[in-house]
Amino acid sequence: MKVLVTGAAGFIGHFTALQLLERGDEVVGLDNLNDYYDVNLKRARLQRLTDNPRFSFHKLSLEDRSGMTQLFAREQFQRVVHLGAQAGVRYSIENPHAYIDSNITGTLNVLEGCRHNAVEHLVFASTSSVYGANTNMPFSVHAGVDHPLSLYAATKKANELMAHNYASLFGLPCTGLRFFTVYGPWGRPDMALFLFTKNILAGKPIQVFNYGRHRRDFTFVDDIVHGVVRTLDRIATPNPEWDPANPDPATSVAPYRIYNIGNQQPVELAHYIEVLEECLGMKAERELLPLQPGDVPDTHADVEDLVADVGYRPDTPVEVGVARFVDWYRTYYRV
């Protein structure tokens, strides 16, 4: 297939493009290479893709309406994996406009491109952050998510609603994937594992929010990517049993689906740090702090719909995943 991967220089995006290339697909990557974090890391990820003759790259912003229109018309993608976004819960408090530009306007441009160019299936990234103030766990895709605690989460919930609208009005098959705290090699420098590793190796204290008591469904990047690719192959279909009198948020009478991708094994942050200390062979100096604005105390994914429909269940334990990150970090940064 010919597949567009937005955010191709990103953490999850470049791994997704790699897997699609490895199985023989033609991949067109899109990224604006912004400086939200180290551009050199983004370029290094891209370098892993550019040697493949079936990969081509376009430096383009999602919010560039004319550029996106031309790209879709010229390339005629069969399927689209939309992973490009302005990420980060805390940064959305400081720079909200970036999230509207990239996540709302940008996603609209992707939807329009798919609509007008007969794309067979759009798979897009959502986030566990949409569960917001919900405390009923494990988080189910069949529960309402109307109380986001950050603008980032609100834009991702908006993406789900926008996708449903296009599925309903134009018959565009859309599948949204709610990722749960993704980590692993080539990860983002603004995320906890990266920051912890950097500071511990430098002999600096690490900031541990919520005093290390919150629990996260840490999900290894390989598990996320396998879920993305397998979902891409299963084109979203209407739910014939959907009841408008009792509407299911995860399905529709339109070709629309929502799935969680998480490890189903919440780990307390304090234990996550202990695993990292073991892998590094060093102890961390911890600066204990209260929960950050916009963060949720705990996450836990219910992935039974993903298992039933797609036949996939993430299963990498943090002991394995953290060790693989540390190996990559020491090699990449020559520590």
Could you explain how this protein is built, in words?
The chain is an alpha/beta fold and 335 residues long. It has helices spanning 11-22, 39-50, 65-75, 91-94, 96-116, 151-170, 192-201, 221-232, 269-280, 304-310, 318-332; strands at residues 2-6, 26-31, 55-59, 79-82, 121-127, 174-179, 182-183, 206-209, 215-216, 219-220, 256-261, 267-268, 286-289. The strands form four sheets. It has a seven-stranded parallel β-sheet with strand order 3-2-1-4-5-6-11, sandwiched between helices. It has a two-stranded parallel sheet with strand order 7-10. A two-stranded parallel sheet has the order 8-13. The longest helix is centred in the N-terminal third of the chain and has 21 residues, at 96-116. 45% of the residues are buried.
What's this model, at a glance?
The chain has 335 residues and is of the alpha/beta class. It contains eleven helices and 13 strands.
Which helices and strands, and how do they pair?
Blueprint: E1 2-6, H1 11-22, E2 26-31, H2 39-50, E3 55-59, H3 65-75, E4 79-82, H4 91-94, H5 96-116, E5 121-127, H6 151-170, E6 174-179, E7 182-183, H7 192-201, E8 206-209, E9 215-216, E10 219-220, H8 221-232, E11 256-261, E12 267-268, H9 269-280, E13 286-289, H10 304-310, H11 318-332
Parallel strand pairs: 1-2, 1-4, 2-3, 4-5, 5-6, 6-11, 7-10, 8-13
Antiparallel strand pairs: 9-12
Essential attributes:
alpha/beta; 335 residues; 41% helix; 13 strands; two-stranded parallel ribbon; globular; seven-stranded parallel β-sheet; 11 helices; single chain
**Structural class of the secondary elements?**
alpha/beta
- Percentage of residues assigned to helices: 40-55%
Order of helices and strands: EHEHEHEHHEHEEHEEEHEEHEHH
β-sheet strand percentage: 15-25%
Low-confidence stretches: none
Profile the largest sheet.
Answer: 7 strands, parallel
Strand order of the largest sheet: 3-2-1-4-5-6-11
Radius of gyration using CA atoms only: 19 Å
Mean pLDDT, all residues: 96
N- and C-termini, Cα separation: 40 Å
What would the principal axes of the Cα set say about the shape?
A: globular
- Count all strands and give the number: 13
Number of helices: 11
